[in-house]
Amino acid sequence: MKPADIFLGSHFFPSDEEPEEAHKRPKQRFKTIWISDTHLGTPGCQAKRLLQFLRATESDTLYLVGDIIDGWQLKRRWYWDQHHNNVIQTILKKAKRGTNVFFIPGNHDEMMRQFIGLDFGGIRIRDEMVHTTVDGKRILVLHGDRFDGVIACAKWLAYVGDNLYTAILKCNQWLNRWRAHVGLPYWSLSQYLKLKVKNAVNYITSFEDALAEEARKKKLDGVICGHIHKPEIRDIDGIQYCNDGDWVESLSALVEEASGQLRLVNWQEIMENKHKNSSARKKSTPTVLTSHSSSDAS
Questions:
Q1: Per the confidence metrics, is the pTM higher than 0.70?
Q2: 59 membership: H or E segment, kind and range
Q3: Which domain covers residue 32, as residue numbers?
Q4: What is the number of other CB atoms lying within 10 angstroms of the CB of residue 16?
Q5: What is the pLDDT of residue 186?
Q6: How confident is the model at residue 277, as a pLDDT?
Q7: Helix (H) and strand (E) counts for the chain?
Q8: What is the CATH number of the domain that holds 48?
Q9: Is 281 a domain residue?
Q10: Which of 96, 113, 210, 252 could form a disulfide with 147 if both were Cys (CB 3.0 to 4.6 A apart)?
């Protein structure tokens, strides 16, 4: 079975059905949500937490900004558990229930680029898009891999780097099992290395500058991308640069509020808000006291 079949035909992987009443529960609502770099099909994908995030939120528009399915890893080793399947099913359900879902393929799911311009199951596959926020800002939306010099000029080196990155993620899993056992919070080894290694910092800065320059050339107000697994919102010479992060390390997404404001959220924030809202609803539910007549009392 080809990785493309997973996305194009949900019937290949029958899911455990979400209870029908689940979609009626109050959810945290945003105007728009951007997620990328979920890397479904790899052990490092935080599919269970991604599923919780998707089920706890709703939006008018959902952008899938590339590397949703990791075709590179699936070619080497097949990995696909029920949580991965449920993520796809949930996205398809959102599209069916009226959410505008756009999928912009990245380098890891580049096999989907042959379908750019087509729609499948309510999901529109596009190369890049211009999103207009509520307050009128025009933002370029793309994965960003073509602005990565390694991907563009030495793809073989990108494959080597991907293998090294996978090895680091495995070490990170073992490390965080130990941290959880001793009561320490989650910590990302790969993000730490990125921020400490000078060449990695220079690479990230060059990537961000290149994306901002592309938006400037197109006379747009900003750019939203993924690819480098570093959630960020910052101003680059008058251009708003946004990276929605990933669902391997940071468990983050970019959202547009009803006001048009763009901000980063993560899995922990959404789950905490869900818990608070649930507790508040329980407290506000009135207690119904049953009265008894004198005859009943006797």
A1: yes
A2: strand 57-64
A3: 3-15+25-273
A4: 8
A5: 64
A6: 76
A7: 10, 12
A8: 3.60.21.10
A9: no
A10: 210
**Tokens read off for 106:** 């990245």
Mark the ranges of the chain whose per-residue pLDDT is less than 50: 1-4, 6-17, 20, 150-161, 197-199, 288-298
CB atoms within 10 A of CB 267: 19
How far, in Å, CA of 254 to CA of 262, rounded? 7
Sequence-separated (6 or more) residues with CB below 8 Å from residue 291: none
pLDDT (0 to 100) of residue 160:
42
Residue type, 265: V
In what helix (H) or strand (E) does residue 255 lie, and over which residues does it extend?
Answer: strand 252-256
In this structure, the number of other CB atoms found within 10 A of the CB of residue 173 comes to: 12
CB neighbours of 154 closer than 8 A, spacing ≥ 6?
none
Give domain status of residue 285, yes or no.
Answer: no
Question: pLDDT tens digits for 50-80?
Answer: 999 999 999 999 999 999 999 988 888 889 9
- Tally the domains of the chain: 1
Instruction: Give the distance, in angstroms, between the CA of residue 126 and the centroid of all CA atoms in the same chain.
Output: 17
Is residue 135, in this structure, part of any structural domain at all?
yes
Distances (CA, A) of 150 to 6, 16, 31, 159: 28, 40, 35, 10
Is residue 229 situated within a structural domain?
yes
Helix ranges (H only) for 57-154 are 71-76, 82-96, 149-153
The 10s digit of each residue's pLDDT in 85-96 is: 999 999 999 999
DSSP β-ladder status, 222-225 and 138-141: parallel
For residue 253, what pLDDT is reported? 98
Which two three-digit tokens encode residue 238? 């008058």
| φ/ψ (deg, to 5) at 248 | -120, -40
